[in-house]
Here is the input.
Amino acid sequence: MTGFSTMLRVTATALLIAAAASGVRAQQAPLQDKPFAEHKIVLQLSDNDPRKQGLVLSVASNLMKHYDPDKVAIEVVAFGPGIDLLRPENPNRKMVESLVAQGARFDICLNTLDTLEREAGKRPEFIAAATPVQVGVAQILFLTENGYTLVRP
Here is the structure.
């Protein structure tokens, strides 16, 4: 029975690993539904510098103006201090919401929110226009593996 119990343990471990891996993928935002997009860009925002936030928003806005919004898929991934762009009190909130209305997507890293909640004892609020993803950097990797160009303004 030793061989059988070892086989059971190996199978159980494999199932747990598969379940954990599929759970991570389930928390990833799916690719945008933009069948006519000729250009796909992911913008990384990982710091809380207001100038950097403005630059990311400017790049996204300029791309929307340069290309037809249906011809470009833009995804901003905010993690670490970069999530401050997606807080309700951020002065750029209206610009973010305007870009979302034009078809851009703004992802917020749940790992960052979890860390801030552990440190402060309260979960930070974020705007409804933000799309939660489990791991911001994993979302960037997923997008680049699916044809997006990474830009770090």
